[in-house]
């Protein structure tokens, strides 16, 4: 008839009668007279939150002294966040509206409340505590409720709260509460950047399909203005480069584009600079990297170039032949009027011939070399 219940030192128990709560049992052995077997026992671990809300609500409402003696009450309003400590060590970040009870005894619990109505920024000393390297080695729950913004050198962070730009963050680390608001930080590189506009299919004015690749350099001159007026500044710049490229190519013939590619750079650059004026962005250099023609157009242009070069070669050849003929005619006129010059030409011709002859036989004396019989005999005929 006598029933015994045992509650361990790291536990707390609840005595139930016919399934209904009777009272809390501390650690130890408990004996009760129960001839009809109406009593039962439920136990909970002291190092875990009390998850039986019915028992907690009953004690808070009907036996507040027992509730205060047994539980560490942690309740947060809708505009409050909480930092829960166990033995003075941060273990959890609690969101607004949290209602939780922890057993007293084994662990010393503490709750620090933060009023979210005072702002979305985390105090610097608290942020440093949350961001310390040793903290990440422990199982700290609820850190998703914090936005940790790490801004590297040569960058700024654009802080947006509920979709509105609030301010710029310099290089360093800051933390913000995410509860009850949408907080975002967008990192922006303030250095000169490159942008590629590739694979643009555009028709020239004479209906030739071209594929162009464009490159541009740009930077932010006023980051806050750019992000305050444009949702995505880089995408806006990309579209304006596309529009400028189409305006430059679509209004010109293929021959004009191939003869002067720089006109595309100038037109696109002027277009983009005029469109970005007042948006906090600067465009440096703009240049076309490639102009790719269709296969059949490449064949036609190759034939045109070949015909042009062939015609130029014919003109040069005829010009040289004409010049050579004119030179021969002038030489003949000089020789006709000057016998000495004709004689010198004969001597020059004889000299060139003599260089190819192995032996020369002369009959009639040296004075007959030019006027008499000259017998030119090669080594084979010797």
Protein model, in words:
- This protein is an alpha+beta fold and 382 residues long.
- 35% of the residues lie in helices and 36% in strands.
- The protein contains ten helices and 20 strands.
- The protein has helices spanning 53-62, 64-70, 124-131, 133-136, 223-229, 233-250, 254-259, 262-276, 295-337, 339-354; strands spanning 2-7, 11-17, 20-25, 28-33, 39-45, 71-75, 80-86, 89-94, 99-103, 109-115, 146-151, 155-161, 164-169, 172-177, 183-189, 193-203, 209-220, 281-292, 359-362, 374-377.
- A three-stranded antiparallel β-sheet has the order 3-2-5, with no helix packed on it.
- Helix 1 (53-62) crosses helix 2 (64-70), helix 6 crosses helix 8 (262-276) and helix 9 (295-337) packs across helix 10.
- The longest helix has 43 residues, at 295-337.
- It is rod-shaped and about 160 Å long.
- The N and C termini lie far apart (156 Å).
How does the major sheet shape up?
3 strands, antiparallel
Quaternary status of these chains? Answer: single chain
- Which structural category do the helix and sheet elements fall into? alpha+beta
- What would you call the shape? rod-shaped
Q: DSSP helix count?
A: 10
Gyration radius (Cα, Å) is 49 Å
- In terms of DSSP E residues, the strand content is 35-45%
Could you tell me the number of beta strands?
A: 20
Q: Give helix % range.
A: 25-40%
Poorly predicted tracts of residues: 372-382
- Distance linking N and C termini: 156 Å
Which sequence of strands runs across the widest sheet? Answer: 3-2-5
Order of helices and strands: EEEEEHHEEEEEHHEEEEEEEHHHHEHHEE
Mean pLDDT: 82
């Amino acid at each position: 008839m006598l029933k015994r219940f045992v509650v361990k030192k790291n536990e707390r128990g609840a005595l139930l009668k016919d399934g209904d709560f009777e009272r809390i049992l501390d650690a130890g052995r408990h004996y009760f007279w129960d001839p009809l077997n109406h009593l039962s026992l439920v136990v909970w671990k002291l190092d875990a939150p009390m998850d039986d809300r019915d028992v907690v609500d009953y004690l808070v409402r009907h036996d507040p002294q027992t509730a205060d003696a047994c539980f560490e009450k942690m309740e947060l309003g809708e505009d409050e966040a909480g930092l829960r400590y166990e033995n003075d060590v941060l273990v959890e970040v609690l969101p607004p509206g949290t209602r939780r009870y922890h057993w007293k005894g084994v662990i010393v619990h503490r709750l620090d409340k933060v009023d979210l109505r005072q702002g979305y920024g985390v105090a610097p000393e608290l942020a440093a505590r949350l961001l310390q390297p040793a903290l990440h080695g422990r199982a700290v729950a609820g850190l998703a409720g914090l936005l940790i913004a790490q801004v590297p050198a040569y960058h700024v962070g654009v802080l947006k709260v509920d979709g509105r730009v609030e301010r710029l963050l310099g290089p360093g680390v800051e933390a913000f509460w995410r509860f009850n608001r949408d907080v975002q930080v967008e990192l922006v590189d303030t250095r000169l950047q490159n942008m590629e506009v590739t694979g643009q299919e555009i028709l020239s004015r004479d209906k030739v399909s071209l594929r162009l690749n464009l490159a541009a350099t740009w930077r932010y001159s006023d980051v806050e203005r750019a992000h305050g007026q444009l949702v995505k500044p880089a995408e806006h710049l990309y579209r304006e480069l596309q529009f400028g490229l189409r305006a430059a190519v679509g209004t010109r013939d293929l021959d004009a584009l191939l003869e002067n590619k720089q006109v595309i750079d100038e037109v696109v650059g002027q277009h983009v600079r005029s469109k970005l004026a007042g948006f906090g962005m600067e465009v440096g250099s703009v240049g076309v990297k490639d102009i790719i023609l269709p296969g059949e157009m490449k064949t036609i242009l190759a034939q045109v170039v070949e015909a042009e070069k062939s015609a130029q070669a014919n003109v040069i050849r005829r010009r040289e032949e004409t010049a050579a003929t004119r030179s021969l005619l002038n030489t003949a006129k000089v020789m006709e009027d000057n016998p000495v010059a004709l004689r010198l030409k004969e001597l020059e011709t004889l000299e060139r011939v003599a260089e190819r002859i192995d032996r020369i036989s002369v009959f009639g004396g040296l004075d007959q070399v030019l006027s008499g019989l000259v017998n030119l005999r090669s080594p084979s005929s010797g």
